[in-house]
Design goal:
The chain is mainly α. The protein has a domain of 29 residues. The protein is 37% helix and 0% strand. It contains one helix and no strands. It is elongated and about 70 Å long.
């Protein structure tokens, strides 16, 4: 351990005992950052986009009728 460096939001220490000895994978999760949101299903995103596009088209058509 480097005694001159402190843990921060972008750097932290890990107990060597917690490292997987079969892979030595060091891609640990940053304990300083909040959990990331789970990604939405692409089909749900596209369905929402289609619905929003339809809503926008309806609003624009209403504006066009007012002109």
């Amino acid at each position: 351990m480097q005694a001159t460096f402190k843990d921060s939001e972008n750097s932290w220490t890990v107990d060597a005992k917690t490292i997987d000895k079969t892979t030595y994978d060091l891609s640990v999760k940053n304990p300083s950052k909040a959990d990331e949101d789970e990604l939405r299903d692409p089909k749900d995103i596209i369905a929402e986009m289609v619905a929003l596009d339809a809503e926008a088209a309806e609003i624009l058509a209403g504006i066009g009728r007012m002109l």
